[in-house]
Write a structure and sequence with these properties.
Elements lengths: L6 H14 L19 E2 L7 E2 L6 E5 L1 H6 L5 H6 L4 E5 L7 E5 L7 E5 L2 E2 L18 E8 L3 H4 L6 E7 L6 E9 L3 E12 L2 E18 L2 E19 L3 E18 L2 E21 L2 E18 L4 E16 L5 E17 L8 E17 L3 E12 L3 E15 L2 E12 L3 H4 L15 E13 L4 E17 L9 E19 L2 E14 L4 E2 L6 E10 L3 E10 L11 E13 L2 E8 L7 E5 L4 E4 L4 E9 L1
Parallel strand pairs: 6-9
Antiparallel strand pairs: 1-2, 3-8, 4-5, 6-7, 8-9, 10-11, 10-34, 11-12, 12-13, 13-14, 14-15, 15-16, 16-17, 17-18, 18-19, 19-20, 20-21, 21-22, 22-23, 23-24, 24-25, 25-26, 26-27, 26-28, 28-29, 29-30, 30-31, 31-34, 32-33
């Protein structure tokens, strides 16, 4: 690495840059909760809708925030949302879990342009391995969404939505910083008369962080990939096809031994829209998601693969000016495999098919926005499940609205939770699917001087909650019932070029069988960001504070500060700088019982970058 990117020199360079051009996140780090009331979202209803009309709590990480620091991974971006907790055992490339509103990590469904991207060998997803180079926005829907998406969406949905080019452009972005961290992106966009094409190539590399408290060694991470999309968008029809692939390698430590893994994730997506008439629209999507995770440097290598194929087709009928109804069918085939990788490893291979039928009704006028739906899903392994949702938002005044949302959801065990093989731990063939019911009340209110207030209270009850712990040798089993109760209160302010956002979230994730809190979920969470932005240059400072949580040992709370700045020198050149964890706070992320120590979260990372666009 050049001397510029040695720690001391880099921090000094960034300090100078910040003094020269105060800026960054107003454009970018307006944070997860800074979505405009006119922001369009699709996750809650499967079609575009203004965020202010959605009868549920939904937040957005916008394109400016994502582009502000290309080296920032998805777990770090999600950390700045007070309503969820991210547990990552180390830095880049290390295992991460997302607990949305206190529910289990497996209760959050991840989508990429509509395609489910949870893996089937374990309960969760490889979110640290997702690349965001082609992502326009990230939508976080809080609350049950099984009516729209089927299994897994008990706590909510997080969807990554890719960009659609609107103009001809070619650009390159380079960001580099401490610990030999750098990322380069090359992109080409073409758009003319409704036709468009997009190509991205990216490369990321870092020496990584110290991930275990009593071990000074760092865990490196290396990733590269590409994405391509072509399509046409006309008033009467639309068609797009995309492919993306990310692959690389990462380090970790097991019982003191250095180990490594290789990974590949791929997404293929074809989507079509046909306006059959002025009030009748047909949408169809064909998708495939592959995830391969191979532990290659180990005494006991492990090769686990997931392949999902999905077809979704629906018909939306706008039968009056204020009402529409959506009829749809979704088919999913998931194959999970553990390849025999050493003598005595039996491996396994299994697949499951589901088909879901859903219907959703929406009504919207000046006083009400309502959403009601039902889904019947037939799971090859676990039978038929019927779920429903009823939600409404009441616009009491032009500045004040209230909403309520009641919904049921379910989650079927994945292959890795039910398989019983000598070389695979934790499987229990007798596991039952989880079922839930959620209740939520919320409000949004606009005051004078650019101030907006919002708040929510909610409760989710889950029957047959699937857990594993040391008492059963980490074999999965069903709890009778768990209850997740919480509230959120937020404030957003914008006046001329100044802005500030704050959100406080409280959740009690209660195991009703033991009357104790579920692990790894702090009850109290707080986020704050403030800054200045005139769209030429800007500056943002962000605070993330998390309370203590329970693990095998108590995990103390922590607080970190990030700073970001950018300067759009001219339409073709933009420079930017970022400091993550400004105080280099060393805080514990999880208990590591292999070496009687703690996993550590990422330390300070100072970076600087430039984008050239033509």
């Amino acid at each position: 690495m050049p001397n510029l990117f040695q720690p001391t020199a880099l921090v000094g360079a960034i300090a100078i840059a910040m003094g020269f051009s105060t800026s960054v996140s107003a454009q970018n780090n307006t944070n997860v909760v800074n979505a405009s009331l006119d922001t369009l979202v699709v996750t809650a209803t499967r079609s575009e809708e203004k965020i202010k009309d959605v009868p549920a709590r939904i937040s957005v990480i916008d394109e400016k925030t994502i582009e502000q620091s290309p080296v920032t991974d998805l777990p770090t971006l999600l950390t700045k949302e007070a309503g969820l907790t991210v547990k990552q055992v180390g830095g880049y490339g290390q295992t991460a879990s997302v607990f949305l509103r206190g529910t289990n990590a497996a209760h959050t469904l991840f989508l990429q342009d509509g395609m489910r991207s949870n893996i089937a060998t374990v309960a969760g997803t490889n979110i640290p391995l997702f690349d965001l180079s082609d992502v326009k926005q990230i939508e976080i829907l809080k609350g049950p969404a099984s009516v729209q998406y089927g299994t897994d969406a008990i706590g909510g949905v997080i969807q990554l939505i890719s960009k659609i080019p609107t103009e001809n452009s070619i650009f390159t972005t380079i960001e580099a910083g401490e610990r030999n961290t750098y990322k380069t992106i090359l992109g080409v966009d073409v758009a003319e008369d409704g036709f468009y094409a997009q190509l991205r190539g990216q490369r990321f590399e870092t020496d990584g962080d110290q991930i275990i408290a009593n071990d000074d060694r760092k865990a490196g991470f290396d990733q590269k990939g590409y994405s391509a999309k072509v399509g046409v968008e006309k008033e009467a029809y639309g068609l797009s096809a995309e492919v993306k692939e990310n692959k690389g390698t990462g380090d970790y430590f097991s019982y003191g031994a250095p180990e490594a893994y290789d990974f590949i994730n791929r997404l293929y997506n074809v989507q079509g829209r046909l306006n059959l008439s002025n009030n009748l629209t047909w949408n169809t999507r064909l998708s495939q998601f592959d995830d391969q995770y191979n532990v290659v440097k180990s005494s006991y290598p492990s090769i686990v693969n997931t392949e999902q194929q999905e077809v979704d087709s629906n018909l939306k009928w706008q039968f009056t000016q204020n009402q529409n109804i959506l009829f749809g069918v979704e088919y999913n085939k998931t194959e999970a495999e553990k390849v025999a990788a050493y003598i005595g490893d039996t491996g396994f291979k299994s697949d499951n098919e589901t088909i879901g039928y859903y219907v959703q009704h929406q009504f919207k006028n000046d006083l009400f926005s309502t959403q009601a739906g039902v889904r019947v899903e037939d799971n090859q392994q676990f039978g038929t499940h019927t779920v429903g949702q009823l939600a409404a938002r009441y616009f009491a005044t032009p500045k004040t609205s209230f909403y309520t949302n009641v919904g049921t959801a379910f989650r079927a065990p994945v292959v890795g939770q039910i398989i019983s093989e000598p070389s695979w731990w934790g499987g229990n063939p007798d596991l039952k699917p989880e079922e839930s019911i959620s209740y939520e009340l919320g409000f949004d209110h606009s005051l004078n001087y650019g101030i907006q207030l919002y708040g929510s209270v909610y409760q989710t009850k889950v029957d047959n909650l699937m857990v594993s712990d040391a008492s059963t040798g980490f074999k999965f089993y069903n709890l009778k019932k768990a209850t997740f109760t919480g509230s959120e209160l937020g404030l957003k302010w914008k006046q001329d070029n100044l802005f500030a956002n704050a959100e406080y979230a409280y959740v009690q994730p209660k195991n009703d069988d033991t009357d104790e809190d579920a692990p790894n979920r702090p009850r109290q969470n707080f986020t704050l960001s403030a800054g200045w932005d005139n769209r030429v240059y800007g500056f943002t400072t962000s605070l993330v504070a998390k309370g203590s949580s329970k693990d095998i040992q108590q995990i103390p709370g922590y607080a970190t500060i990030d700073m970001n700045a950018y300067w759009q020198i001219n339409p073709h050149v933009k420079v930017f700088s970022n400091i993550h964890n400004l105080g280099d706070t060393t805080y514990k992320a999880a208990w590591n019982n292999e070496v009687s120590s703690y996993y550590l979260a990422s330390g300070r990372l100072a970076t600087a970058g430039v984008t050239f666009r033509y």
